[in-house]
Amino acid sequence: MINNIKLGSLFIIFSAFSFSIMEIAVKISGSNIPVMEQVFARNFITLFISAFMMIKNKEKKFPNKNNIFLIICRSVSGYLGIICYFYAANNMVLADASVLQKTSPFWASFFAFILIKEKILKVQWLGMIIAAIGSIFIIKPSFMINSSIISFSNIINLNSNIFTALIALSAAMFAGISYSIIGSLKGKESNALIIFYFSLFSCIFSLFFIKSFVIPNMTEILLLLLIGIFAGLGQFFLTAAYKKAPVSSISIYNYTGVIFSYIFSIFIFKETVDLYSVIGMILTISAALLVYFCKSKN
What we know:
12 helices
């Protein structure tokens, strides 16, 4: 079990790294490319990769009858989560959107407890709380305004930002549901099959809901390819992680994505690291180490 937790934790970190690169591509391309086109690109490449893996490994092409409902629920919740997150990433500060989406471990642990009765230790709750506090230090949410300078225009802007933030939180909730369902499919269906049907569902519905298609230029095509490639890598690592170890044991490592996103933002968007960010990173890493060593000791 300990080796599985270690391997699952490593997969989670690889997944967070891949999704952080995807976030940057989403943010840059979002100035011209609609969300539904981004969502389609995010799943189109993954669809072919998962199909290739199924054929290469000579896996079955359809899920067991008893697992069809779970596959559908995983696809729907994952699809809604992606739409919400891409919308938030395109309409608010990327760092804010990232940390709000990273509340998904809370939801993952909660739904894992509800759906598959996974036990949650006190130290895991403590670790997630510390990581959440650390994330707030890193983010310094832009929708928090000084009450002494509230004006009519500020109130309108605040309400708009809160709505977008709630969309980002919704993305985290849907992601948490998806992760817990993946955990419930452990040993029942292959990684490639789960991802294939999720990607197929997402591609079909994204095409259906595209209202005005924008023909991308060469730079935007490259960005869309990066979205698809790194989303695929992140998805495979994520699915493998949650099938390798209990959700509540490794979901805390999703917070490393906040650190990756911020580091990439420094070099791409020229953001500076202040004292609050350093404190936040230390808290986030400390939370992950706390859970890791306590679980290993047990």
